[in-house]
Amino acid sequence: MALEVVESVVESLPQPVTVLTPLEAMGHGGIPVQAITRFACYGEERQWALEHLEGAFRVFSREGCAEGIAGHVRVRDPGFRDLFWIV
Hints:
The chain is mainly alpha-helical. The chain has helices at about 1-10, 20-25, 40-60, and strands spanning about 75, 85. The mean pLDDT is about 75.
């Protein structure tokens, strides 16, 4: 039954239908989310993670979540799996 419903919905869509990957489907306004890049060393990956951690914290701050646990954002250090960076 569910397959018939899906097929009827797909048939009713204007053609051509572009099937998006899950990563593309998470994009905003039709702009797909970029994939996380591969890094040559832990230092490069750490720098990337810290820059994105800073950006995430700025978004939290803009939304008013900058005090106490509401502003807690963390990322695991790529070189040391038992170390976390927290802002």
